[in-house]
Specification:
The strands form two sheets. Strands 3, 4, 5, 6, 7, 8, 9, 10, 11 and 12 form a ten-stranded antiparallel β-sheet that branches. A two-stranded antiparallel ribbon has the order 1-2. The longest helix is centred in the first third of the chain and has 8 residues. The termini are far apart. It has about 210 residues and is mainly beta. Helices cover about 5% and strands about 60% of the residues.
């Protein structure tokens, strides 16, 4: 999977199919629940919260990057993030919420998406989460911590997922054969997956601030 070099790790190219945001589109949400689409969740100029009872993933890697985007009033923004990538992942009792403030006549409006709460967890392939803040109990198998370098044969290292993220190819990085996170609570700026199957999908809009945690 990787070739070792003194002082760090050479990383192979990461790639994932991206489609336009599906954060608030009910009909696309139904297709996602049926495993029919690739998925990209992002909120213009806003972070969002994600919680889960458990996330079990294989092919884990993590590296620093900068997410760029625009606020609701069109101003350009940039945010430092830690990108957590999984070749495949299973997520139990997932909740994702985003609050849009200052809507005329309504005030704050909260969008909440829940899935994987029954016997079937959420399943994802080529999952990338651009994390600003994370708390969880974590277990890593065969972890390798070093520098995210450049593989001259296979091209640039992490950060090539196809979005607006910009990664430092010589910055800190780590990878592991597998990772298990329990009692997950995180704030993120973007979530991208090649395939995102949301079993038992429930999506709701409500006035006021109602977040996953």
């Amino acid at each position: 999977m990787e070739s070792q070099v003194r002082g760090g790790t050479r990383w192979k190219r990461f790639a994932v199919v991206m489609v336009p945001s599906v954060a608030a589109t009910a009909c696309i949400g139904v297709a996602l629940a049926q495993g029919a689409l690739a998925a990209s969740f992002s909120v213009s100029g806003q972070s969002f919260k994600v919680s889960a009872d458990k996330l079990e993933g294989t092919g884990f890697s993590q590296y620093g990057a900068i997410d760029s985007g625009y606020t609701l009033d069109g101003k350009k923004t940039a945010h430092p993030v830690a990108v957590s990538a999984f070749k495949s992942a299973s997520i139990t009792n997932m909740c994702q919420s985003v609050v849009t403030p200052n809507i005329p006549l309504l005030g704050s409006v909260s969008l909440t998406l829940r899935a994987g709460g029954g016997s079937k967890p959420v399943e994802a392939e080529n999952l990338y989460i651009d994390v600003e803040d994370l708390s969880a109990d974590a277990v890593f198998k065969n972890i390798d911590i070093g520098v995210a370098g450049v593989d001259m044969k296979n091209g640039p290292g992490p950060g090539m997922k196809g979005g607006s993220e910009a990664a430092n190819p010589y910055g800190f990085g780590q990878q592991a054969e597998s990772a298990t996170l329990t009692d997950v609570k995180q704030t993120a700026w973007a979530t991208t997956a090649g395939t995102f199957k949301l079993s038992g999908l429930k999506m709701s809009l409500s006035t006021g601030v109602k977040e996953c945690y």
